[in-house]
Amino acid sequence: MAKYPTYGREEFPYGDEEAFKQVFFEAYENGREMVGCGKVADYIPELRKADYRSFGICLLKKDGSFLSHGDVETRFSMQSICKTVMLAVALRSFGFAKTFSHVKMEPSGDSFNSIIKLDTASNLPYNPMINAGAIQIASLLSTRFSFEELLGITKSFCMDDGITLNRAVYESEWETGDRNRAIAYLLKSKGVLQADPQQTLDLYIRMCSLNVTAKSLAGLGLILANDGQNPFTGEQLVHPRHIRTVNSIMFTCGMYDGSGEFGVKVGIPAKSGVGGGITCGVKGRMGIGIYGPSLDEKGNSIAGITALEHLSHLMHLSVFDYHPIPENGEKGRE
Ligand code: GLN
After folding, report:
1. 291: Cβ–Cβ under 8 A, 6 or more apart, which residues?
2. What is the pLDDT of residue 326?
3. Ligand 1: which atom is nearest the Cα of residue 299?
4. Which of 110, 140, 240, 279 is most buried, most CB within 10 Å of its CB?
């Protein structure tokens, strides 16, 4: 077992960079010890090639300082994390009312690729963070944006010009994406899909196949944490009220049917992908990006969740934490 932190909950020495680093490395070690307890995704054959032992975390703060360790430069497909970007772009382009006339905003409680509720309980997908909801958003976006335009937007959201399409993952998902095809055609049969199913799926699968790193996901997290603004360039990428919506949906639905437990134990808006990535925005403070392709049974990075629990607990990162975190190095109000 990794060494458990020496700080009690009330004693964390805020402003002490060494203590901050110690907690960070403990979190990393705790996560790394879990890699053997999960499994790399295999339903998209190309994803099987990932090394289950890979693990990297990057924390990026508003002042530009960052802490990173492990496999933070490794490129991997962002998978469902693109749902966060697509929702933000939909809100920015079509507004709140129109976007949510195409998809609901309720946790589904089912696995990310489930089709059950879409057939039986509702004509609209439950939320934009499950496949059905993201396919619906992709159909809306495809009426206005090309893939190249969305790639450019993703690069700016992630502060990473190196993002490209992972063609092998894209082709692999096209060949084996029968469930997603079923979802798209079911949406079409209900008359709610906004574009041709093939065109919609092509955009959705391309977005899932974008190659990011833990560092790029920390960049995306920082934009989410910073009310939609890039703190380094001052560029406002998305209006704060839309980022508020994205963060809310991430909080309730971003970790699929593990969102409730994650909300209680970690308490940070986050989005995972079956490629092993997680992006988190800690409101007003930092972005966290993770790569750990060994997944738990819900499809979330097992090492990533373990490390985030540790970080959140020790650094009081939950949105519901009762200790305000002062930036000036003094101890928080009791
Ligand atoms: N591309 C994947 C799919 O559609 C995304 C799923 C995920 O990351 N959970 O199945």
Report:
1. 54, 55, 56, 70, 71, 72, 74, 76, 213, 214, 217, 276, 277, 301, 304
2. 56
3. 9
4. 279
The pLDDT assigned to 323 comes to 57
The encoded tokens of residue 173 equal 């998902």
- Here the tokens at position 246 are 């994205």
Looking from the CA of residue 80, the nearest atom of ligand 1 is 8
Please say if the pLDDT value at position 6 is more than 60.
no
Residues forming the active site: 80, 83, 204, 256, 274
Averaged pLDDT for residues 236-247: 98
User: Nearest Cα to 228, choosing from 216, 240, 217?
Assistant: 240
Compute the distance between CA of residue 334 and CA of residue 331 in angstroms, rounded to an integer: 9
Determine the 3-state secondary structure of 212 from DSSP: strand
Q: How many angstroms separate the CA atoms of 134 and 129, rounded?
A: 6
Assess whether pLDDT exceeds 80 at residue 2.
no
- Inter-CA distances, 208 with 83, 172, 266, Å: 8, 12, 25
- pLDDT given for residue 176 in this prediction: 95
Residue whose Cα lies nearest atom 6 of ligand 1: it is 80
**Residue 4 — very low, low, confident or very high, per pLDDT cuts 50/70/90?**
very low
Neighbouring C-beta atoms of residue 316, cutoff 10 Å:
19
